[in-house]
Amino acid sequence: MKLGIVVLEGPYQHEAADTAYNFAVAALEKGHEVFRVFFYHDGVNNATRLMVPPQDDRHIQQRWSELAEKHNLDLVVCVAAAQRRGILDEDEQGRHGKDANNIAPGFRISGLGQLIEAGIQCDRLVFFGD
Amino acid sequence: MAMLHTVNKSPYQCNTLESCLNHTQEGDVVLLIEDGVYAAAKGGRAADALAAAKGVKICALSADVKARGLDGRIIDGVEIVDYAGFVDLVTETDKTQAWL
User: Fold this and answer.
1) Is A23 in Cβ contact with B87 (below 8 Å)?
2) Which CATH number belongs to the domain containing residue B11 in this structure?
3) Domain range holding B36?
4) Chain A residue with the nearest C-alpha to that of B94
5) Sheet hosting strand A75-78, strand order edge to edge
6) How far is residue B12 from each of residues A59, A110, B8, B18, measured CA to CA in Å?
7) Using a CB-CB distance cutoff of 8 angstroms, which residues of chain B are in contact with residue A129?
8) Mind listing the pLDDT tens digit of every residue in chain A (130 residues)?
9) Is A78 a catalytic residue?
10) Residue A71 near residue A34 (C-beta atoms within 8 A)
11) What pLDDT score does A42 carry?
12) pLDDT at B1 over 90
């Protein structure tokens, strides 16, 4: 089955980011397709490669990036939510004249249309938030 | 049209579960996740409401039950499922509604 996942909360703040990840892993293990993971509102904070959690703690961003690489997942970050929270890729960095970008490997910045498309294309859309 | 309802709030925090149970229909499934699992604790505030939910299957996510020390303290009639079971509930029902 084709599944879409929406993450509305940031890492280390609320369990939603962990629950969504564990759900994605379980779905992939069962042979389902994860069509897209859409990060919205504070969920965009999952996508910064600059997070440095303690070594004995889970690395929430790296975990997503590795899962994306392994399963060719589409991790999409909402552009408007990302701009507000300082999540930038190279294009956004240039467009806004910033001195750095921080998007992690495997993530891409795009618009809400990607969420709508996931809603249309997926058999199920599952939300994780607060 | 069976629906899966996920509830992630403790009944001591807000009335999300109550709202959810007011909207469930026969054949639906309610999955308690994160702090939502507190609702299924024996002797808890929401235990009676869950027991009274007729025609609705109540489940709780095992990892969250364990993380909160509720192992062996869950009321009868609540099915404990792991993440694989969570995925099955999503695919076996027609839609998933998250009561955030």
Assistant:
1) yes
2) 3.40.1260.10
3) 3-99
4) A124
5) A107-110, A75-78, A33-39, A2-7, A124-128
6) 31, 38, 12, 11
7) 98, 100
8) 999 999 999 999 999 999 999 999 999 999 999 999 999 999 999 999 999 999 999 999 999 999 999 999 999 999 999 999 999 999 999 999 999 999 999 999 999 999 999 999 999 999 999 9
9) yes
10) yes
11) 98
12) no
A32 reaches B (C-beta below 8 A) = yes
How confident is the model at residue B84, as a pLDDT? 98
β-bridge partners, B60: B32, B80
| Domain total in chain B | 1
Contacts of B84 in chain A (CB under 8 A): 26, 29-30
Beta strands in A1-130 (DSSP E): 2-7, 33-39, 75-78, 107-110, 124-128
Give the CATH number of domain A2-128.
3.40.1260.10
Task: Give B64's contacts in chain A (Cβ within 8 Å).
Answer: 15
